[in-house]
Amino acid sequence: MRSKQRGVAVVFAMGVVALAALAASSILVVQSTWSRESELNAGHAQAHEVVQAGIDWARAVLGEDSRTSSVDHAGEPWALKLTPLPIENGEIAGRLDDQQGAFNLNNIVRDGKLSVAQLAHFRRLLGILGLPSMLADALADWLDADNVVYSANGAEDDYYLALATPYLAANRALVDAGELALVRGFDASVLARLRPFVTALPRYTQINVNTASPEVIAAMVDGLDLDTARALVAQRDKTYFRDVADFARRVPPQLKNRIADVAVSSDYFMATVRVTIGRSQASGLALLHRERFGWPAIVWRKYS
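Now predict its structure.
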């Protein structure tokens, strides 16, 4: 009997030891997981701080540029991409992109009213990119302040409320070009084709011909074909346009009187910063507005 009791006691003791070992193992796993999460959270917070510092660095670069030059072109320091640079336990990379090298979609409507000239520029851009010109009508309705359909190709509340997931037309300026995904006809393939050539800025802006693509330049000058625009860009890459008169001298003579809404300097830039610290990563995107001889302001920013 005593032998049997001792056997039961041994088995019980072994069970207790096993449970204790399992509990200890669980505690170690929890502590290890918590430690890793704490490490990752700390690393991400640190990376986030470095991203903010990177955006401030971009603002400083633009501020200094405004003090030394009244012309913005791709040969200036701000236009150089920051290749990955080593920092403690990681790296940082970033770049500045001139947003006035792209067509400002919000130019189509000014003070709630349609701009016929800007709508024509956008139609030409769509045609150059091989996209349907009717997209311009849908965007005009999305931006204008009324609820009246611009044309049969347009769309106001009635169209959007009839969708599987209904919503209203914005009837206001775009905050970001990504909002185009909500507009009639702007599907994924259209957005992919259009995205490199457009932007959304909070006020009317001119196109900087020193940073614009051939497609955008051709869209801005009625009658200027894409091949000629490409030749102008090739010349510009060797010698930038010093002023609008310089640009006008280089376009075909018969088109000089059709030049409008262009400039050789910019006020809006996009700063992109990516940071890696250990196993943590962070990135930031900020739209910067620079006034001459002033510290650039942040219009909006996104962090991830």
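The helical segments are 2-68, 116-128, 135-143, 157-161, 188-194, 214-220, 226-238, 244-250.
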